[in-house]
Amino acid sequence: MYLLRRHIAFAFLLLTAGFTTWGQESEDVTFELQVSKERLGVNERLRADFIMNRDGDNFVPPDFEGFRILMGPSQAISSSWINGVRSYSKTYSYTLAPLSKGTYSIGQASIIIKGKTYKTIPKKITVTDAVARPNGAPSADDIADENLHLIAEVSKTDPYLNEPISVVYKLFVSPSIVVSNFRPLDNPKYNNFWSQDIPLSRYNIEEGIYQGKPYRYVILKRVVLYPQKSGDLEIEPLALDVSLEVPTEKRDFFGGRVYTKTNKVVSAGNRTIQVKPLPTSGKPADFSGAVGDFDFEVTTTKDALNASESLQAKVVVSGTGNLKLFQLPKLTLPSALEVYEPEFNEDVKTNLSGMKGSVAEQYTVVPSYQGKYPIPSISFSFFNPEKEKYERITSREITINVLEGPKATLDTPDIVTAPKTTVQGGDQFYFIKLTPELIPKKWNTFVGTRMHLALLLGPLLTIPLFILFRRKKEAREMDVEGTRVRRANRLARKYLSTAKKALGDKESFYVAMEKALHNYLKAKLKIETSEFSKDKIRTLLSEKKVDDSASDGFISLLENCERARYSPFSQVQMEQDYQKASEVITALDKAL
Question: Which ranges does the record mark as transmembrane (predicted)?
Fold first, then answer.
């Protein structure tokens, strides 16, 4: 592949050169310093080349502080003419030996070209401990170690308990190497954290700086963590097996660098998070673990209604914080109101900054008597990590006015908190009839009635139905192919149900999903498992005139099942695949 690139580049240069004027020379003058390496052991040698594209005079080298000159300066001149374009290069070379460990700078060299003085840019050289293989050609692993890095960027290393932090895993790749593929070897478990993966729609290559050098990087994984325990918590490393191509010392026919393929395992390393406990000073007695910045309110759908009608009372907490990790305060209502178990509603989205949205409990309330009933105010307390203090929000008191309905007592007060057990007055039993006005029942003879004849002749009429059912059963038993199809249908429904129960467990979910898809195909296309291949399935579905979108959706599900064996899949992705499986099977049912 690289040889082909060099051919194309070479042909392009020849084509471009053909349009230049014979004898034309480049007008730009360059004079630069190139070193064999910027980091070397104290027992290694350094080559420094001062290269110019025009001939010059009065070359003045730098003083090479921190190095001993072993050889040089040696001169090398290269000159050529291609399609009338002159190419010229002159090089002064030095071989240097470092005197001690440290960081040194090779200063400016100068030369006069056509009466004008040109100077090189200084370069910093780092000298480290002695190496085992001085000035030996670096191996592919050595090159990969220097040019490939997996980093876990943590947004905050000292959060409070239940305060969100984000971890972003980035793979940095030097422009000198090429990554062809990678696969995760070990995904972090995030013990003692509540975790939520932020799915990536695609991998985007971006430019960045790592350790002061330009790199390309790609974001591999994003996760939001809520620490559930104070103290030092470890984030397990993410490990990747990376397939890459690294340059060697060999050159091809055109002078281009020859690359070799290798594999390298990189790890993000352990990260320690120092989780601070929530302060005990000022901690409210009703604190339920909410950490963040919230709003709180209690509302009702009605403030006036009749007895036996219903209203909804809603307790809502909204804002940013650990919305899924605490209990809502309970609503207290007068005992004269019939209250049903609350319905929990959640509208929470999670991004790199944490959870945002609202959680609510909705109570259905049915009053039985006339009167005015207060819904007392309740409080919600939480810890705000930005302000580093506890806060409390109290709801307003709401009065429910029941306009029409039975009265609890003859002298019902304006505000009733519970029906009274004793009632005064003489008309409290006005709704009970004292004269029942009973009518004697007439008894009829049962024999000869329609009911009697139905019970007598009914069993005789079921005999033909029984014979018909028996024949159909025998026909079904004789239909071996139909029995196999029905069995596969049942298995597909069974495994799809199993997949739904396994949501959240990637391995179990996708194994059950794959079995369900296979059994569905066995039922509809009458093929065995040994015949399964994507091309075969696509061909059969096309022959059945199945819509391309349904066919592509089915193939995509199979590919996801295969990819899930070695790639991380989030809860959201699994739910989407389950929903997609239901839609695709429904679409195929209509077509088949």
Answer: 451-469
Q: Is residue 226 part of a domain?
A: yes
153 and 256 co-located in one domain: yes
Instruction: Say how many C-beta atoms besides its own lie within 10 A of residue 27's C-beta.
Output: 5
Position 222 scores a pLDDT of: 93
On whether residue 439 sits in a domain, the answer given is no
Q: Are strands 304-305 and 398-402 parallel, antiparallel or unpaired?
A: parallel
Nearest by Cα to 49 from 94, 18, 84:
94
Provide the pLDDT for residue 387: 93
Structure token pair of residue 530: 């040994």
Taking the CB of residue 513, how many other CB atoms lie within 10 A of it?
25
What does the pLDDT read at residue 438? 66
Q: What is the pTM of this model?
A: 0.49
Q: 152 and 81, same structural domain? A: no
Which of 402, 429, 451 terminates a domain? The answer is 402
Measure the CA–CA gap between 383 and 400, rounded to whole angstroms: 32
pLDDT of residue 542: 81
User: What confidence score (pLDDT) does residue 231 get?
Assistant: 93
Distance CA 503, CA 424 (A): 61
SS3 per-residue string spanning 166-208:
EEEEEEEECCCCEEEEEEEEECCCCCCEEEEECCCCCCCEEEE
**Structural domains of the chain, count:** 4
Evaluate whether residue 287 is within a structural domain.
no
Q: Could you tell me the sign of the dihedral formed by the alpha carbons of 499, 505, 506, 508, in that order?
A: negative
Instruction: Identify the pLDDT of residue 299.
Output: 94
Within this chain, do residues 147 and 123 fall inside the same structural domain, yes or no?
no
- Nearest 5 degrees, angle CA 220-CA 222-CA 223? 145
Residues 151 and 51 in one domain: no
Closest CA to 318 of 286, 278, 367, 360: 360
Beta strands in 211-291 (DSSP E): 213-227, 231-235, 239-251, 257-267, 271-275
DSSP 279: P
In 96-192, which residue ranges form alpha helices assigned H by DSSP? 140-147
pLDDT at 420: 34
SS3 466: helix
Quick one: 120 exposed, middle or buried, by C-beta within 10 A (0-12, 13-18, 19+)? buried
In this structure, the answer to whether residues 230 and 169 fall within a common structural domain is: yes
Mean pLDDT, consecutive 10-residue stretches, the chain (592 aa), reads 46 41 54 87 86 86 87 80 75 88 88 88 87 64 83 93 94 88 82 91 88 89 93 89 81 73 84 93 92 95 90 95 93 86 92 93 91 92 95 93 78 41 39 59 66 77 80 70 59 70 78 80 66 73 79 81 69 78 74 68
DSSP state letters, 352-405: TTEEEEEEEEEEEEEE-SSEEEEE---EEEEEETTTTEEEEEEPPPEEEEE-SS
| Residue after which a domain boundary falls, among 402, 423, 438 | 402
- Indicate whether 145 and 200 sit together in one domain: yes
State which residues form the domain around 529. 480-591
